[in-house]
Amino acid sequence: MRASQDDFENAMNQVKLLKKDPGNEVKLKLYALYKQATEGPCNMPKPGVFDFINKAKWDAWNALGSLPKETARQNYVDLVSSLSSSSESSSQGKPGADREQQEYENLVVTSEDGITKIMFNRPTRKNAISTQMYQEIMLALKAASKDDSTITVVTGNGDYYSSGNDLANFTDIPPGGVEEKAKQSAIMLRDFVDTFIDFPKPLIAVVNGPAVGISVTTLGLFDAVYASDKATFHTPFSHLGLSPEGCASYTFPKIMGPAKATEMLIFGKKLTAREACAQGLVTEVFPDSTFQKEVWTRLKAYSKLPQNSMRISKQVIRKIEKEKLHAVNAEECSVLQKRWLSDECMNATMNFLSKRSKL
Ligand SMILES: CCCCCC/C=C/C(=O)SCCNC(=O)CCNC(=O)[C@H](O)C(C)(C)COP(=O)(O)OP(=O)(O)OC[C@H]1O[C@@H](n2cnc3c(N)ncnc32)[C@H](O)[C@@H]1OP(=O)(O)O
After folding, report:
1. ipTM of the complex
2. What is the mean pLDDT of the chain?
3. Ligand 1 pocket: which of 120, 124, 126 to mutate (most atoms <8 Å of CB)?
4. Which of 73, 101, 200, 293 is the most buried (most CB within 10 A)?
5. Which portions of the sequence form the region Disordered (predicted)?
6. What CATH number does domain 5-84 carry, 3.60.15.10, 1.20.80.10, 3.50.50.60, 3.40.50.620?
7. Which whole-number Å values give the CA distances from 324 to 42, 186, 329, 331, in the listed order?
8. Domain 112-324 is in which class?
9. Quick one: DSSP state of residue 168?
10. Which residues contact 111 (CB under 8 A, 6 or more apart)?
11. In whole angstroms, what is the distance from residue 224 CA to residue 210 CA?
12. Distance from the CA of 169 to the center of ligand 1, in angstroms?
């Protein structure tokens, strides 16, 4: 298959992340293929003999003659891929615990065995997603999309996977008032969900316990969902005066059929892990006592599959849906922007925060 523009751009990003300097000869080759792929045959005047660096670059580009742009792009992607896998194998086998990557306040992000694990880490709030945590999740996913791991896993610390949106997010009202707050929230939500839609490598949810709201809806954008038999799946949007997000208005009817999706998204029916599996939202359910061991053994095996092949397969599977998903996301956010200002939503939020109600 021909390398797409996306593959080419991914390869350009991967070059910046190479752990080992590939040496001047390879760098010149990369330069020449890049120029040929983007501009076609060498169009630079030949540099003087004493302009060593530019002369070497010119020679490398000129040597590609009339190689078609598409072939140059493919060769560039192949070369980067071979460099990435050799730099990966030379960095593997380092003993020791997980490599922690960057400090986050509400997440623990680690990389090991070709797997980047993003763990929600607000267990005392049942991993409710605060405004800062939305930002951190987006940052962590963007970093994972560019790192050298083959798959990315999202999970929760403690007894919950996540209780969804932190209902206290709506108490932090900016000077522009509640309308401004609703507008800002809609923008952030759209970016957040877009990050899942565009995530380029296999994204796996390890659902360790109950999941609520946005932590359930976004599961429809994952590539596989493994759940403990202690997990439940609850989208109580009507109880909160809300409407679906995370593209669930599109993915859920598609995954489970409109009638089952209605029970979840409109009537707020909470599903057990086995019910969610029967309806296609969950890939497989494991007994809680062996959940971590079984899932991680399996994920480690999957992470050894060829990286580019998995990435490309995901692209092929998802490509046709992407535009649709972005449109659905935009529409859901615009509807929610109005719902947040409704009496139904404001009352439900106040009731929860003043401890008059729980789900
Ligand atoms: C801003 C832009 C994006 C918006 C996107 C739209 C997203 C929508 C959704 O996600 S809708 C779903 C929202 N979630 C909820 O409504 C869940 C609310 N929580 C509960 O009903 C319960 O806490 C529970 C059923 C999840 C767990 O009950 P329980 O086991 O009895 O534990 P506690 O209630 O004692 O929880 C401990 C502690 O955490 C606080 N907490 C839990 N979840 C949330 C939450 N989602 N938001 C805020 N706070 C939460 C809970 O209040 C307790 O605090 P306390 O110890 O009492 O101070």
Report:
1. 0.99
2. 92
3. 126
4. 73
5. 83-104
6. 1.20.80.10
7. 40, 18, 9, 11
8. alpha beta
9. G
10. 98, 99, 101, 117, 147, 149
11. 17
12. 11
